[in-house]
Amino acid sequence: MPSGKLTLVPTPIGNLEDITIRAIEVLGIADAIAAEDTRSAKTLLKKYKIDKPLFSYHVKNEREKADDIIRQVVGGRRIAVISESGTPGISDPGFTLVRKAIDAGIEFEVLPGPTAFVVALVLSGFPVAGFSFEGFLPHSGKGRRRRLRQLADEPPRTLVFYVSPHRVEDFINDAINILGDRQAALCRELTKIHEEIIRGKLSELLEQLGEPRGEMVLVIGPE
Predict the structure, then answer these.
(1) How many Å apart are CA 14 and CA 16, to the nearest integer?
(2) What is the CA radius of gyration of the chain?
(3) CA count, 13 A, side-chain hemisphere, 31
(4) Which of 91, 78, 50, 132 lies closest to 215 in space, CA to CA?
(5) pLDDT (tens digit, 9 = 90+) per residue, 15-66?
(6) Could you write out the three-class secondary structure of 190-222?
(7) Burial of 7 (0-12, 13-18, 19+ CB in 10 A)
(8) How far apart are CA 113 and CA 10, in angstroms?
(9) Domains, the chain, ranges and CATH?
(10) What pTM was estimated for this model as a whole?
(11) Contact 172, 218 (CB under 8 A)
């Protein structure tokens, strides 16, 4: 029986040309591709003339599909896993699959590639020697404020968050009240034509926010 293989493949966070040669090669030889969003996956694959079977692998079916992916790999298939954008497992499905692969003793690989928080962190101009990537905080205001209070009690450092557009105003207001009116950078539409970086105090970001669109990366400085 041929040896199967599991590979987590990062995909562009905006500009479709931000993909590695190796990622294209892995997607091209895969027997099937597990995709968080099959619609965006089809757009990417069409650009690079890759025609492979797709199946959904997202947060709502992650556990069930992870077991199925493991079975396929054990059965000798080469499965590539992609998220809607960025690196699987970074605020996207992937962690459960990795844990199950480790528990099952299956070898797997993770390719290097695009990750939104790294781009935003460097663009912010804040210290990167010590930072905390928090991803998405809880949706509820109570849960969000609880985590911000915990961060306020820790030594000051650069903080990086993913923020959805319909929560960004409440998020920044909570950050001001709990962390103080720190310097920050709000990054949106990263790598796209309308990429925008808003810098200033958190209160100044609120004034310049305008019409929120697309998922954002909020980087808050240590002071």
Answers:
(1) 6
(2) 19
(3) 13
(4) 91
(5) 999 999 999 999 999 999 999 999 999 999 999 999 999 999 998 898 899 9
(6) CCCCCCEEEEEEHHHHHHHCCCCCCCEEEEECC
(7) buried
(8) 5
(9) 5-110 (3.40.1010.10), 116-220 (3.30.950.10)
(10) 0.92
(11) yes
Residues 6+ away with beta carbon under 8 Å from 165: 212, 213, 214, 215, 216
Task: Provide the token pair at 135.
Answer: 């991803």
Owner of token pair 């958190």: 202
Distance CA 182, CA 65 (A): 42
Does residue 13 contact residue 119 with C-beta atoms inside 8 Å? yes
Provide the token pair at 153.
């009690």
Helix axes 168-179, 141-152, angle to 10 degrees: 30
